[in-house]
Structure formats: C-alpha cells, structure tokens
Amino acid sequence: QGFNQKVQEKLYQMWLDWRKKSSKESGDETSAEAEEMESLALFMACSITQQLQITCCKIMSAIQGLPSSLQDKVKQSLGTIEELHASFSAANSFQDLSSSVLSQSQRKLAVIQEYMEELLDYLKNNTPLSWLVGPFSPREEEE
C-alpha cells in the first residue's frame, strides 16, 4: 500500500501517451517509448516485490506464537516473493524473463494474497491480547 504513488501515476500517464501516439504514428520514436515503458514496468515489478519482501519479513517477526500452519504459509510466501524479486532484478527486459516466470507470477501472487487473507481472518477472530494492550510488567507501588 505504501508503494510510491508518483511512479504508478507516471507509468499510467506514459501508457496513455504511448497508446495515443501508437494509434496515430509508427516508427523509431514509438519503439523508444515502448522500451521506456517496458523498463519502467520492470522497475515497478522490482520495487513492488522488494516492498513485499520487506513487509513479509516484518509479518514473519510479528506472528511468532501463532499456529505453525500460518507461520509456514507466510514463510512460503516470503520464499516465493524472494524468487520473483530475484527474477525481476536480474532481467534487463521482459524478454529476459522465462515464459514460466511471467505466466506463473500472477498465480503465485494470488496464492500469497489468499494466505494473507487467511492470516487476517485468523487475527480478526483471535487477536493476541499482547497486541491489544502491550506487554505486562509489574508496577512499583509508591509509598
């Protein structure tokens, strides 16, 4: 959610501009814009997967003590996100990515979303008391 809104808006505006120009003209300029758009989209994929990695690591540390099945799903999600990030980071263009990475990434992200929704459902019904009131510690009495 905290991903840079300006980058998303820039990509969308570039896509709109490219779409308008590609319908009116063709040539080297359109090709250069398409390459720029592809480069920006790849950059966004890297940035989003990196942010997902950071967030998933924070979730991992926060869910200690929850059922191991939930912890395993978050750990599995982190592994998948790390793989996707490594693939996007190593690529210079989408042609550098295997067709399996491109076709499976959407499915893998859908599974991760399902796991996170399961975790949220669990927390909604079983919020740990320490998350609500903080750690308990003895209080010194004043005399």
Brief summary:
This protein has 143 residues and is an all-alpha fold.
Strand elements, count: 0
Q: Which CATH-level-2 architecture of the domain at 39-124?
A: Up-down Bundle
Oligomeric state of the chains in view: single chain
Shape: elongated
- Please write the string of helix (H) and strand (E) elements: HHHHH
Percent in strands: under 5%
**Unreliable stretches:** none
Name the average pLDDT. Answer: 79
Number of helices: 5
Q: Please name the fourth-level CATH homologous superfamily of the domain at 39-124.
A: Flagellar protein FliS
Distance between the termini: 50 Å
Q: Helicity, in percent?
A: over 70%
Largest sheet: none
The radius of gyration over CA amounts to 22 Å
Look at the structure and give the CATH class of the domain at 39-124.
Mainly Alpha
CATH domain fold name of the domain at 39-124: Four Helix Bundle (Hemerythrin (Met), subunit A)
Structural class category: mainly alpha
Question: What report would you give on this structure?
Answer:
There is one protein chain. This protein is an all-alpha fold. The chain is built from five helices and no strands. The chain has helices at residues 5-24, 28-62, 68-90, 99-125, 129-133. The longest helix has 35 residues, at 28-62.
Keywords, please?
about 140 residues; Four Helix Bundle (Hemerythrin (Met), subunit A); about 75% helix; single chain; mainly alpha; PLIN3 protein; lipid droplet
